[in-house]
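Kindly review this protein for my students:
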Amino acid sequence: MEKSGAESYIYAKASGLLKKSWISERAVSLFNAESLSSLWDMIFSVPEPAVPQLLFANKIETEAVSSFVREYSKLLDMYDKPSAFLTGLLQQYDVENLKAIISALDNGEEKHPHLVNLGSYRLISYENWPDIKKITANSPFDWINDLNFEEERQKIDFKLDLQMINSLWKSVNSIKGEAKEVLKDYFIYQWSVKNLIWAMRLKVYYNFSDSRIIENLYYVSSAPSKQDPICSFAIDILSKRVDSYEDWEKSRFAEYLNPRNESGVWNLNPAWVEQRFRSREFARAKKLFHQYPMSEVSLAMFFTLKRQELNCIRAATEAIRLGSDRKEAMYVAGIAGMIKGEDENVSDK
């Protein structure tokens, strides 16, 4: 289908899919489910699988991901040739697949791990298990051709993530027209926030030095620095003390901070900040989806909104499995504040 016709169809189809998705107010119902069985019946139209209860929670999550990938792939198929950015969003799952394969092989497992099936959009050859050289052959990851790593596995995973991020950055810059600047701004904001939360965690939980934090940041230029498009948020907070609210209260991140309690004792809570940003990201993606309906922006925002649905399904599943507080699970999913309507007015930046 030619581009304009494809984008009109995609927006109409995606709008219908989002109305049936477990996002916004509908997501609350997930957290009211009494059991994993009732949660399955709520989400899926197929009968409950015959799996042990210990594996049921994982089955719900993997089926939800598979369902999303099928939906997104069908929308991509409407293009004669979808942009590298739109396919790249989906191929982030290939990076996760490759990490899982490397881990399984490294641990001597005989059966390949569960992989997300990307169909024609996959980059690696899953069927060549367990030959890692054949799995990655003719792919952007063919530098992984054996398991004799000189570096720690964590660093290999970081390299894979960084490679995908830089591929997305290159592809978003190749988009034509108005959609380019919209998606570029969105990409910068999204990955700047991820770097920010990561830097906060390294400060609070691991007491990393500034130089070590910078070494662990994602970047899209030649190296992580304040001049890099996605590093400034994280680098801006390096001088701030994690036990001093005064250091943070006038920063651009003040509205995302966990509040001080009555005793006045305060310590930065990265998880709180992350959930506040997650709620805002959802509201912003929803706004952009409708603001740029006949463009690549709408499908990219559909991807973001459906990933939020997966967060909600995962949080609800874990809450039921562990018998934990449902309201707390909603905060983990990043929807509690959104449901109250406090994050509806979101700027474009």
Observations:
- The radius of gyration is 21 Å.
- Residues 146 and 210 are 34 Å apart (CA to CA).
